[in-house]
Amino acid sequence: MRDFVLHARYNPYRLDMLKWKYHYLEDNVSDLIKPASATPLNPRRRGIIIGASDGLGAEIARKLAGEGYSLALLARTKDKLDALCNEINIKDQLACAYVHDVAEYDKVPDLLRKIVADLGGLDLVVFVAGVNYPPGGIDKFNFENDRKMIEVNLIGAMAWLHPISEMFQSAKAGQIVGIASVAGDRGRVGNPGYNTSKAGLATYLEALRNRLTRQGVNVLTVKPGFLKTEMLKAAQGATPFAIEPEKAAADILKAMKKRRQVIYTASIWRWVMLVIQHMPSFIFRRLSF
Amino acid sequence: MSLPLNTFTQLENFGHSLKASSYRIQIKRAEDIFEAFQLAKQLGLKVTARGTGISYNDVSLNGGGIVLDMTGMNQIQEWDPASGLVRCESGVTLEQLWKRVEPDGWWPSVVSGTMKTTLGGCLATNIHGKNNFQVGPIGEHVVEFTAMTPTGALVTCTPKKNVDLFYAMISGLGMLGVFISITLKMKRIYSGLISVDAWHVPNLSRQLSGLLEHAPDHDYIVGWLDTMKAGKNLGRGQIHAARNLKEGEDPDAQKTLQLVYQHLPDRLFGVMPKSLLHYFMSPFVNNLGWWGVNTAKYISALRDHTFRQSHAEYHFLLDYVPNWERSAGRGGLIQYQSFLPKETAEDAWREMLQLSHQRGLPSYLGVTKRHRPDNFLLTHSVDGFSLAMDFKVTDRNRAKLYQMLQDFDQIVINRGGRFYFAKNSETSAETTRQFLGDAVLTKFYKLKRRCDPNNLLESDLYRRVFL
Q: Which of A65, A188, B289, B449 could join B284 in a cystine, given CB atoms 3.0 to 4.6 angstroms apart?
């Protein structure tokens, strides 16, 4: 059980109430350590970041905390999540950690409800979680790895964004940010499974956007190029225009504020991908990237 | 039992300065409330009842939890024009109520500045009117009510039965149970008109002495305070004191008691829809513009006079311009209301008004009233006065305004003042403890444990000031 004295609004009477609450505590009662309630003069938007433990997700979490968001941070690895939470919570109790594997789809509804209750509402979801298992050569195939990528990158996103879209559609408010990839813009020789998962995610986000914009919900598709993260190590060959995740997170926040629809980060990828997308197949299929 | 995701709704406070999304469940019958409690317990969610949602703060918000929309329980179950007793479901609004009883020569004993409030909300916050000094809050006119506690128990309370719950649930902010039906005693009126004396007051001292001295001769009294005026005329304004007409005083009583006579016109000068007026007000809602509005209002108030107007016109000033609160702009507005003993009010408000001028954060609207104490557990009332101040919220002024309101809290606490839970949005748990006192809080927590052992009823306000 965590130390409730850490709560930002701690007061002596809370102690009595909490002791009493512990006494009656049931298994399904939400965690007691929650970010403080919003007030008109201390408004707090509430966000979920799925895949927050390191890399781009962690940078987005840091940036959003700096903007005063209350955050639910989700990832598979507890240690990294806790470290990030502690780092963010030094100044104010803004972040809560939830250990979760996005491939465990059945757990999503209950966890989502608990998170929304803990945060005191929901305004934003950022889906960052993604895995990349290159097959190891342009003549190699690995169904198991491809399936894992689809399960995490695409179906994992759908498992979360489906109920959240329904909630935002009903509330007529909210913002969804999905991290797709430049890799989803064309099917390439290097990693068909990854291309497919990210292309599927981008199309899914576009469909959500077309459904939800009319309800006042913004859906932002982010297409990063190479980021200097763990995933970069998996990339084969050259990694042009690689940027720090911090820079990508800054781009994403800027786009969120402007309620943009699709962005590339670094921005040069927009032009690179414009060329690649329009490259005729008889040329493209002869290339080796 | 499940909770459909399409019940997720973004709810707001009256001033549009605070938003919180919750699962909204429509309540039609008392059984629906019980089912909602069961569902909440099963899912580990908290529950708050909400009427029309026009409190200034977070009293009817419950971010991430279940909000019971009580507006569907809106039947006036029994009205007896002979005795003036009316039994209503808790989602009945004051508008429904007065429109039902007024043609028979009755008027609700206590009404708020808007007629849109539901009776359940009125009891939960124990509203007061401009006649608080004469008749107390609405709770003193409740003959009986039935409420459901989260355990599913139906409790019926009167001033003599279940007395502790009667005085705690009224003013209890919906945290002990949900009101189901309410029996109220109406007040006899002999005309659809009310006689209003209006006179100007040149400073704060005269404002408060005017309220104090003239209250006993009137049924209602309310002051407008020019919150932007500094210097020797600090606290200047206008007092409206009114009295009900006696039997025979209005020769056209049959006519003026008709509902059509109580109509609030929806057009300005018979032409412009008032619903558009807030767009034209917006450009003036800034320090310079509102200084001009207040000054013009004070100059027009210099003519002291007596006039008659309908009950609806006198009581429901907040309904004059629909959506007027929208004129505050994107950040919305908040209200800060302090209740101070008559001995210390002048010093406290002088200090607060001066502080607001020094910091460049003047309130745009100030309203004063005369009050007397009451016996309800979480009472906000004192033998003294209240001053309600409206503030526009912007992205730029939030931090400064927050700090100023914390300083206001200390000024009020140091002078023995209190706060009203339907209004102030920034009161902290510590401030609440200071003005309510340990004994009251202990009693409240004890009743909470008794009525709500699983702690199902929680609002954003409850988490802010009681946890």
A: B289
Q: What is the pTM of this model?
A: 0.91
So what's the ipTM on this one?
0.90
Q: Where are the beta strands (DSSP E) in B55-141?
A: 66-69, 76-80, 85-89, 106-108
H-helix or E-strand spanning residue B415:
none
| A40 close contact with B: CB closer than 8 A | yes
B449·A17 Cβ contact <8 A: no
Fold of B73-188: 3.30.465
Give the gap in angstroms from C-alpha A15 to the nearest C-alpha of chain B: 8
Segments in B302-397 forming alpha helices (H):
311-315, 345-358
CA distance B192 to B102: 8
- 3.90.550.10, 3.30.43.10, 3.40.50.300, 3.20.10.10: CATH of B5-71+448-465: 3.30.43.10
In order along chain B (467 residues), what is the average pLDDT of each group of 10 residues? 90 95 96 96 96 96 97 97 97 97 96 96 97 97 97 96 97 97 97 96 96 96 94 94 94 92 75 78 86 91 93 91 86 96 96 96 95 96 96 94 97 96 94 95 96 96 93
Cα end-to-end span (Å), chain B: 30
B449 to chain A: closest CA residue: A20
